[in-house]
Automatic annotation (TrEMBL):
Signal peptide: none annotated. One of its GO terms (biological process) is regulation of T cell differentiation. Residues 312-324 have a biased composition (Low complexity). It comes from the Eukaryota. Residues 356-377 have a biased composition (Polar residues). Belongs to the NDRG family. Residues 330-355 have a biased composition (Basic and acidic residues). This is N-myc downstream regulated 1b. It comes from Seriola lalandi dorsalis. The lineage of its organism: Eukaryota, Metazoa, Chordata, Craniata, Vertebrata. Residues 312-377 are annotated as: Disordered.
Length: 377
C-alpha cells in the first residue's frame, strides 16, 4: 500500500494523545502523535537508558524534514516503566522487568491503541527491546530502524567494570559513558552538559538505575544468520532492518557484530561518518533522510521529495576488519540482482563507491541490501 502525499506546505500539527498503558510488567507511558489508520503502519519508538521520548527523539522529530513523515505516519512513543518525565519512584515491592519482559509490554500497547503493525525505531536499550519484540511477534512488525543495538550480553569483565563504575561514579556519569564515546565526552562539552542536565533534572535517578541494571543483565539476542542451503528455519529478524551507528559511538563493534548475525538480504548497516553516540541528535537531517528511504523502500512515501545523499558503502567483511588506516574497498548491492558501482578516489586514500541514495528510493518494493552502508557527507 502506497501512501498518498499531503501537498500542504504548512507546518503539520498532529493530534497528541498521552496515556499510561497497563501491561503484565507494569504501566508504560505512551505518547501517540497523529491518528492511527487501518491502512498505515505506525512508527513505534523506544528510548535508551537515561532518556525519555523527548530527550531521545525530540531533535529528530522536530526536524523540518520530518514533517513529510509525520503527515503520513503516526508516531507512538513508548517509555519504559518509571522513565517518563516527572515519574515517581517505583514502589519498593516492584520488580523491574527484564529486557525480554519489556519487549512483551509492546503487544499490550498495540492492542490498547488498536494498532495492527508498526515500524520500530529504537536506540540502545530500546533497539534491543524492539528487536526482541520483532523476534517474538514478527507479524506485528513491518520494519526496524535500530540505532546503537548491542545484541550481546555483558561479559564477566564488563559486569565487574559496571559494578566498580557504580561505586565510583555518579549515575549521570555512568549514563553519559553509555550514551557517548570518549571523544565526544572530552571534546563536545556543550552536548554532554545538556544531556547531563537532562538526566539529572528530568529523570528519576532510582528508576533510571533499575532500567540500567535490567539492560546490563540482558541475555544474548538469539539470532542466527541464514546460510544458503542450510536450515531455513533459523531464528532471525524477518522484517527489513536498518542498523545505524555513528563512527564515534561506543558500540560500533557491537553493531557490526549484530549485522553479521542477521539475514543479509533483509539487513542494512548504515555507519555514519563524523557522528557520535546519538546519530538522531548529532545528525538528525541525515537520519531523517535514511528513515525516508527506508520507509519508501517498504512501499510508502513513494512520491517523497528526496535530496541527494552521497554514500560510501562497505562490505560487511571489510567493515568488520576496520583499522586505523581506514583504507578499504567499498561495495553495495542496492537492489536484488542489480549492483551499481562507480570507483573513485578520495583524499584520505579510500577506494569506495559513490552512490546516490535516490536510486534506492526509486523502487516501491522492499529492497534488499546485503552489504553495509557507511554514509559520508
Amino acid at each position: 500500500m502506497v501512501l498518498e502525499e499531503n501537498e500542504c506546505d504548512s507546518v503539520f500539527e498532529p493530534q497528541i494523545t498521552e496515556e499510561h498503558v497497563e501491561t503484565l510488567f507494569g504501566n508504560v507511558h505512551c505518547v501517540m502523535t497523529g491518528t492511527p489508520r487501518a491502512n498505515r503502519p505506525v512508527i513505534l519508538t523506544f528510548h535508551d537508558i537515561g532518556l525519555n521520548h523527548k530527550t531521545c527523539f525530540e531533535t529528530l522529530f522536530n526536524h523540518v524534514d520530518m514533517q513529510e513523515i509525520l503527515r503520513n505516519l503516526p508516531i507512538c512513543h513508548v517509555e519504559a516503566p518509571g522513565q517518563h518525565e516527572g515519574a515517581k519512584t517505583l514502589p519498593t515491592a516492584y520488580t523491574y522487568p527484564s529486557m525480554d519482559q519489556l519487549s512483551e509490554t509492546l503487544p499490550a500497547v498495540l492492542k490498547h491503541f488498536g494498532l495492527r503493525s508498526v515500524i520500530g525505531l529504537g536506540v540502545g536499550a530500546g533497539a534491543y527491546i524492539l528487536a526482541q519484540f520483532a523476534l517474538n511477534h514478527p507479524d506485528m512488525v513491518d520494519g526496524l530502524l535500530l540505532i546503537n543495538i548491542n545484541p550481546n550480553p555483558e561479559g564477566i569483565m564488563d559486569s565487574v567494570a559496571n559494578k566498580i563504575t557504580e561505586w565510583t561514579h555518579t549515575l549521570p556519569d555512568t549514563v553519559i559513558s553509555h550514551l557517548f564515546g570518549k571523544d565526544e565526552i572530552q571534546n563536545n562539552h556543550d552536548l554532554i552538559a545538556t544531556y547531563r542536565h537532562h538526566i539529572t533534572t528530568t529523570m528519576n535517578q532510582s528508576n533510571v538505575m533499575q532500567f540500567f541494571r535490567s539492560y546490563n543483565s540482558r541475555n544474548a539476542l538469539e539470532v542466527e544468520r541464514p546460510v544458503p542451503g542450510g536450515n531455513i528455519n533459523v531464528r532471525t529478524l524477518k522484517c527489513t532492518t536498518l542498523l545505524v551507528v555513528g563512527d564515534n559511538s561506543p558500540v560500533v563493534e557491537a553493531v557490526v557484530d549484530c549485522n553479521s548475525k542477521l539475514n543479509p538480504t533483509k539487513t542494512t548497516l548504515l555507519k555514519m561518518a563524523d557522528c557520535g553516540g546519538l546519530p538522531q541528535v548529532d545528525q538528525p537531517s541525515k537520519v531523517t533522510e535514511a528513515l525516508k528511504y527506508f520507509i519508501q523502500g517498504m512501499g510508502y512515501l513513494s512520491s517523497a521529495s528526496m535530496t541527494r545523499l552521497r554514500s560510501r558503502t562497505t562490505s560487511s567483511s571489510s567493515i568488520s576488519s576496520f583499522d586505523g588506516s581506514r583504507s578499504r574497498a567499498h561495495t553495495n548491492e542496492l537492489h536484488r540482482g542489480r549492483t551499481h558501482s562507480h570507483a573513485t578516489e578520495e583524499k584520505r586514500g579510500r577506494s569506495h563507491t559513490d552512490v546516490s541514495m535516490d536510486s534506492i528510493s526509486n523502487s516501491n518494493v522492499e529492497h534488499s541490501i546485503s552489504k553495509s552502508t557507511e554514509v559520508a557527507y
